[in-house]
Design brief:
With 112 residues, this protein is mainly alpha-helical. The chain has one domain (19-26, 36-109). It has helices at 19-28, 40-49, 59-70, 73-82, 84-95, 99-109. The two termini are 24 Å apart. 31% of the residues are buried.
Length: 112
């Protein structure tokens, strides 16, 4: 269930960076951020979505992740606002070159 790369950081329908994209930018700048914490469970679910390990979530989360997979940028931003931990994990997997390894580390060790 992978999707082609998006251009630029994910944005809201108004053109602002999504929370996860802003947190990633802030983190790269060396500034403390209030980025959502990706739990080991969320990491495992998103890894499963990308067929990179993890384990399958329940039916609701499976459908949520499928919706994320086919969402355009505006709808992905809406999903991220409702489910920030999943948004941070999906963005890491899709946009961060070390995102999959980071999610695997979180899922296995419980730490970022």
């Amino acid at each position: 269930m992978t999707k082609g790369p998006r251009r630029g950081p994910p944005t809201t329908p108004q053109g602002h960076r999504t929370a996860a994209a802003q947190a990633h930018h802030t983190q790269k700048a060396g500034v403390m951020s209030n980025a959502p914490t990706i739990t080991p469970t969320v990491a495992a679910h998103v890894l499963w979505m990308f067929d990179r390990g993890g384990y399958p979530p329940g039916t609701f989360i499976q459908r949520l992740l499928r919706a994320w997979d086919c969402a355009d940028e505006g709808n992905a931003a809406r999903l991220e606002m409702a489910y920030p931990e999943y948004g941070a994990a999906v963005n890491a997997a899709q946009h961060d070159p070390g995102g999959i390894a980071r999610l695997q580390r979180i899922a296995e060790e419980g730490t970022e």
